[in-house]
Design brief:
This protein is of the alpha+beta class. It is about 30% helix and about 35% strand. It binds succinic acid (SIN).
Length: about 180
């Protein structure tokens, strides 16, 4: 697969005829909601865990020196907490561009804080995408984040903003907070 998933995502037409669709955000989509949404609510998805295992060649790094951003990794025991946005399906063109470095739109059930469930969309960067970096030690990940910057700014801001947003949502995420401590260490 190429680095640019825009064309693949264009084939995901499942929600095109709907008035609105719920998008689950677990990374920058939690703290950088610079798009038009109709409503937003804290939500979670089952069976996935957040990891800084995805390379960023376009936002928080460069092709020569990629940064690290989050994707979701399958984990039967895990619940990933984030923020859901109700959006118009017409917004996907803009979001596909933002998430083009390996992320594909995938249909997922999500659960709101009151226990109600809807089917919506999550951007997922699977282990076969060209920008995938995979696991590394917390110190190595934190060092790479400390050393990287890209057109959207320093990679460290991505990690620190995500950690702060998770604290505000009262979400305990050991992976993210361990990396934050290693970065600030
Ligand atoms: C997301 O936030 O849901 C996807 C990953 C990112 O854009 O940081």
């Amino acid at each position: 697969m190429s680095f640019d998933t825009t064309a693949d995502n264009r084939h995901m037409t499942h929600f095109d005829a709907h008035d609105s669709v719920w998008l689950f955000g677990y990374g920058s989509l939690i703290w950088k909601a610079d798009f038009d949404y109709l409503e937003r609510r804290p939500a979670s998805i089952e069976g996935w865990t957040r990891r800084f295992w995805q390379g960023s060649h376009d936002h928080r790094g460069t092709p020569e020196s990629p940064g690290r951003v989050v994707t979701l990794v399958p984990d039967e025991e895990a619940t990933c907490h984030g923020m859901a946005y109700r959006i118009s399906p017409s917004l996907f063109a803009q979001l596909d561009h933002r998430e083009k470095n390996g992320y594909l739109r995938v249909i997922t059930p999500m659960t709101f804080d009151d226990g109600s469930q809807v089917e919506g969309v999550v951007y997922l960067a699977g282990e076969n995408n060209a920008a995938y970096l995979g696991p590394a030690s917390p110190d190595a990940i934190a060092r790479q984040i400390a050393d990287s910057r890209g057109p959207s700014g320093p990679n460290r801001d991505y990690l620190l903003n995500l950690a702060q947003a998770l604290r505000e949502l009262e979400v305990d995420d050991d992976h993210v907070f361990t990396l934050e401590r290693a970065l600030l260490g």
